[in-house]
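Shift notes (night). Ran Arsenate reductase ArsC while the centrifuge was going.
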Amino acid sequence: MTGKPEVLFVCVHNAGRSQMAAALLAHHAEGAVDVRSAGSAPADSINPAVREAMAEIGLDLSREVPKKLTTDAVEAADVVITMGCGDACPVFPGKRYLDWQLEDPAGKGVEDVRPIRDEIDRRVRELLAELR
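Came back to this:
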């Protein structure tokens, strides 16, 4: 990697895990990493329990919308982290691919989303330490 690393988080709907991961990495990296998220089959909106769980820690997802995964986004990334949709993500040589096995927050209340958020936060901090 040369220059500022770019990380792409991918999950199926881009309404939960990948949105939390992108927001957490952007927050902790303070501009040192370019961060994107996308979904292989994006939902219409962010999961309300995810928005609430992130707001509890001061991160506002109210303006975020699920985005469609594109080949260009994968090609531009240095690190691609999938969360339950690895087969839908194109693979390019020279990229670092990680698959984070995380519970899907879909259909869960905020009390069940908090532990998922906290596990994503732990992994994001580890990733950031590796990228620096």
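The first helix runs from residue 17 to 29. Residues 103 and 116 are 7 Å apart (CA to CA).
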